[in-house]
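ingest -> fold -> write
write: protein_1
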Amino acid sequence: MSSLKHLNHSIKLKRMQGNVSARQSELSINLLLYSVKKQTQKHPFGVTIVVTIATIIFAKYRRNIKSLYPMASLGFNYFK
């Protein structure tokens, strides 16, 4: 019986971790959208150009997308 309790407890923990990670990704997406909105208000043409270039790069290198995160971060910091 105790092994069944341990199994249920581990399943609950996994579900909680899934909910937390989903919430964190939702918050990070909202923060990204807020940042893009603010930058668009300040530099509308610059953001349009950067988004166009980023879309082309992501479409071409979609398999290596994780390695492009630093470049996207530098692009956002450039407009600050």
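write: protein_2
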Amino acid sequence: PTEIKCGTGNGTAGMLNHNKICKKKPGLDDQPPNSSRKRRRVDEESAQNIAANTSTPWNKAELSNRIQQIISRLQDIRGEVSEVFKLHESDSASSLDHNRSTTSDQHLRTSSLISRQLYGRVAEKKSILKLMMSDDTSNSIIVLPIVGVAGVGKTALTQLVYNEPNVESRFQHRVWIWVSRNFDEVRITREMLNFVSREKHEEINCFVKLQEILKIHVKSKRVLIILDDVWDDMNDCRWNQLLAPFKFNSANGNVILVTTRKLSVAKMVGTTEPIKIGALEEDDFWLLFKSCALGDRASENPGNLCTIGRQIAGKLKGNPLAA
């Protein structure tokens, strides 16, 4: 391979001299045409000076090989980044599909307790259970709305009630359905059937037919239904049609708990005053915050951490989501 070897000398000085000349402001006696010619001459002389005095040997083949290695590595990095983005897109799509999923398995998992420890909400839980366990049989169905902002603990409270041993023994069927923004009567009715029947009804899309089948399965049965995260301000007609199978030929004492962020939904569906979930009391929130921050070490109460933690917790205004 051909090598360009340069002698030793003041190559750096040449570069500095070139830089100095280029930055020099033209004086009053300088003539523009001559300045341009001088600058070109200086550029040529400086370039020759740098080439003549640089002492580092350059191997063209080695340099070419090195460039190829860098290009190859950049291509590898590009591939790795592409894979990361593909995984991210896949995860996002999976998450979206999961949220849109309407299988009963998803909602069975939703009804499962994330943690048996619920901080606060003692009074709210007591009120809900009292209504659910009432021996008053004058109503075939009770609809109790649970209202609160996002993350305040509506679903966690409802999970705790849903899994109470007394509740399990009182109701022949317990149904948990995540509704979200799309209040689809056909989907909801089909999912109700998935809880009360061993048969699958995915191929049936007729709302009336699904209602007839559901009516047969809940006949003379007491049913608890959780409609979690209801958004849609559906009209009375749609709502009454959805509940029709539980109003006739079924046992009295059916209960529907509706969790929602919207007071308008609560007023429309409720047969009783809603349970309003607000911020946690200071002591309850501190226990939750400490558990989230310290985990298994929460019982150790390290003094300095508790002092700082109390200050932080006080600024979060009892919002469980902030913990």
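write: annotation protein_2
Residues 1-10, 93-109 have pLDDT under 50 and may be disordered.
Residues 60-100 form the longest helix (41 residues).
pipeline exit 0
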